[in-house]
Specification:
The complex is a heterodimer of chains A (301) and B (421). Helix content of chain A is 32%, strand content 16%. By secondary structure, chain A is of the alpha/beta class. Chain A has 2 domains: 196 residues, Rossmann fold (3-Layer(aba) Sandwich), CATH 3.40.50; 80 residues, no CATH class. Chain B has 421 residues and is an alpha+beta fold. Classes of the chains: A alpha/beta (301), B alpha+beta (421). At the A-B interface, helix 1, helix 2, helix 6 and helix 7 of A face helix 2, helix 4, strand 2, strand 3 and helix 5 of B.
Chain lengths: 301, 421
């Protein structure tokens, strides 16, 4: 008999497409959470493939902290135009202005925590019953136990000890009124898988991922981009370096890496030999050992 | 982790066991020796180990992700771990081995190609070994690899290893396992995990890593019986694709080609495959586990839950299901006449529990026909009647068309996993 094999990337793709199609059928009003990072770009790419030649049957939701890199916003708008998707923006700035959330103050001030309230508010306003996210299990230890279909109660909370068992490819999206699901189609991808696949598929990415010259300064062992929105201590000196982003979040909490990887092939080479996790540069994860689990319980991405 | 090859295969394996039998050490070693543990992760668990006053670096901290698990020092849930070598990408479903976590073991086993069974060489086969082996056979994991661990603590004795091997072989005769492999290892010292042991010259078999990289998984799917459950109907309604009607889904069995004569279930209508489509263009054939879109020569109105098969090879079309189930919920199975929602492939129906044939004692493999209560972690044989016909195969023949889950209609929880007999 002939040996039928597909590569691990093709198998991961098939699994993710299957999950995306389940979401379109099991929920009435899904939305794809788009951050502008490579994982959500991958998600959009997979969604385009899953429903081809029809359009993606759900809108994209971007929670804009107002602290994004300008490159992220430009890239987002171009992408949305190209695929003809609807974009919804939840604005943290607006939420601060109308008093829904309060801004942190001081040197390590970040709007990361404020995103959760704005996200939950946006989901509620749009009456979305499933929010698709690009989280991966290899990213962080609390995410290693996340399901593909992750149930959230009416407050958007995650209960890690009471998760539904998930077997074979049977996904249970049953819920009560007012509850919703977070769905993670790329759960089984690793950082290297994502890069290999993006290279293989020739997917366009924001310039921030490629090595470029930028003014940076060091704080707690992490390089941060120089920007008026981060308050610097007198001792923190600005220097120009060749850097790139491994993850893209807010300018306030996304560390940049010294790197010469200015092509996707060089990035894959770098990723496959690096000895630090990609979230190692995220100051939001460093607040405590269980900061991701704590934030996820409250409804973070 | 220098893995630039895009054509590597994906292998999923499951492990079960307690902290004491060295499972965490073994996983830690596989991750560490394949350079899949990052420096900052390692530094973090080192700091935590020191804070707790533990000797050395506790690799179990890598797999125990939730706060409550770290406090109690046990794994409660299924944790997924990833590593890759130049030959393969691996997904480990790491599950707790205690009886109260049978449901987690079942969950981890449902998609695995390989089950890794760990035996402490000093203790031989214990209850937990039997339980995990039985679940591997019940869930039809195609390959079983038995690692006799802690060989360093029995002076690397061939006799100890051979005795355990014989004992396991006797026990496994009662199980439905196709492929069993034995390896003597020491996870702590690294013997036969990635590198060949210099302490066991008498063993001339493969190392664990060599086995995982080379075990033949190409035939783990069913490539014979053609099954395509319709998952989603694609109708673009655009000028360019005005008459496009595509049936999207994941191939559950067999191989499909353009021009193949097919039959639709439940209608029984026949047609031919006009095209197998994808975003990347037309495909010459489709087989498991591919996600594709099928276009047919005739215009039928197929919908989600229907199935495309071959006229000369059909699944059973029936409302009566005989199955083994594993019960997952604290609330016992309602019997008699308990009603549940049932999910099978892309179909969703309701069902009623008609008969409880027996509850299985998974330690002795004996059948208890008097026990009329199915509680959490119990494994039982039942007869179900569904509100509409399902298109089913035996679980032994096809893990996708032979499996289902039961959902409590009040709480919406997944309460059971079922394997069709």
């Amino acid at each position: 008999m002939m040996n039928y094999n597909i590569s691990h990337l093709k198998e991961l793709e098939a699994e993710s497409i299957y999950v995306l199609r389940e979401v379109a059928n099991q929920f009435e009003n899904p939305v794809l959470m788009f951050s502008g990072g490579k994982d959500s770009i991958l998600m959009v790419h997979l969604a385009v493939k899953a429903f081809y030649p029809a359009k993606i049957p759900f809108p994209l939701l971007h929670v804009d902290t107002g602290h994004n890199f300008p490159e992220t916003i430009e890239f987002r708008d171009n992408l949305v135009n190209r695929i003809g998707a609807k974009l919804i923006v939840g604005s943290v700035q607006e939420a601060i202005d109308n008093g829904m959330v309060h801004e942190e103050k001081g040197f390590n001030a970040s709007r990361n925590g404020l995103q959760t309230a704005v996200l939950l508010d946006s989901l509620e306003k749009g009456k979305y019953d499933a929010a698709l996210g690009g989280a991966r299990r290899d990213e962080e230890k609390a995410r290693a136990k996340e399901r593909f279909f992750s149930h959230r109660d009416e407050f958007g909370q995650w209960d890690p000890k009471n998760q539904r068992p998930e077997l074979w490819n049977l996904f249970n999206g049953q819920k009560h009124f007012g509850e919703h699901f977070r769905v993670f189609p790329i759960s089984n991808w690793t950082e290297l898988d994502v890069w290999q696949y993006l290279a293989y598929e020739k997917v366009e990415l924001p310039s921030l991922y490629y090595a470029h010259k930028r003014n940076v300064f060091e704080r707690d062992g992490v390089l941060l981009a120089e920007t008026p929105i981060i308050q610097r201590r007198d001792t923190e000196q600005v220097i120009e370096k060749n850097v790139r982003c491994r993850t893209i979040g807010d300018m306030t909490c996304t560390g940049v890496w010294e790197s010469d990887a200015d092509t996707i092939e060089k990035i894959i080479q770098e990723v496959s030999t690096t000895r630090m996790t990609e979230r190692g540069g995220r100051t939001d994860d460093k607040r405590s050992e269980t900061s991701m689990e704590d934030r996820k319980k409250q409804g973070y991405f | 982790m220098t893995n630039l090859n895009q054509d590597t295969e994906l292998l999923r394996f499951t492990t079960a066991g307690s902290v004491d039998d060295g499972k965490s050490t073994l996983i830690g070693r596989l991750l560490y020796d394949s350079k899949s543990i990052f420096e900052d992760q390692y530094e973090q668990i080192k700091a935590t180990s020191e804070k707790r006053g533990e000797e050395g670096v506790n690799l179990a901290l890598l797999t125990d992700g939730l706060k409550s698990e770290r406090e109690q020092g046990i794994t409660i849930d299924v944790a997924y771990r990833y590593f890759a070598t130049p030959k393969r990408k691996f997904i480990i479903a790491d599950t707790p081995g205690h009886i109260q976590y049978t449901r987690n073991m079942v969950t981890g086993a449902s998609t695995a190609n390989v089950a890794l069974i760990l035996i402490d060489a000093r203790n031989g086969i214990v209850e937990q070994t039997r339980r995990h082996s039985f679940i591997s056979s019940l869930l039809q994991i195609p390959h079983l690899v038995v690692c006799v661990n802690k060989m360093d603590l029995v002076d690397y004795s061939e006799e100890v290893y051979e005795n355990i091997k014989d004992e396991f072989s006797n026990f496994s005769n009662k199980l439905d396992v196709k492929d069993i492999h034995f390896i003597p290892i020491s996870a702590l010292k690294g013997d036969n995990v990635v590198d060949r042991s210099k302490n066991m010259e008498w063993y001339d078999g493969q190392t664990l890593m060599h086995y995982l990289e080379n075990v033949h998984i190409g035939s783990d799917h069913n490539f014979i019986d053609c099954r395509f459950p319709v998952q989603h109907v694609i109708r673009p309604y655009t000028d360019e694709f005005h008459d496009y009607r595509g049936y999207a889904g994941r191939v559950a069995g067999g191989t499909f080609k353009k021009g193949d004569e097919i039959m639709l279930l439940p209608s029984g209508f026949k047609s031919k495959i006009a095209k197998i489509d994808s975003y990347d263009g037309e495909l010459s054939e489709a087989f498991p586990p591919m996600s594709v879109t099928m276009l047919l020569e005739d215009d039928f109105d197929l919908s989600r839950g229907n199935m495309i098969v071959r006229p000369n090879n059909q699944p059973d079309v029936t409302q009566d299901i005989e199955a083994m189930i594993c019960w997952f919920n604290e609330k016992p199975m309602q019997f008699p006449r308990g009603k549940y929602k049932l999910k099978h492939t892309t179909q969703e129906v309701r069902c009623i529990v008609k008969e409880l044939r027996y509850v299985l004692d998974i330690n002795t493999l004996s059948r208890n026909q008097e026990d009329k209560s199915v509680d959490m972690n119990d494994i039982a044989r039942v007869a179900l009647r569904t509100t509409a016909p399902l298109f089913i195969d035996e679980y032994r023949k096809n893990r996708i068309t032979g499996s289902f889950i039961l959902i409590d209609e009040g709480t919406n929880n997944t309460v059971a996993a079922g394997m069709i007999i």
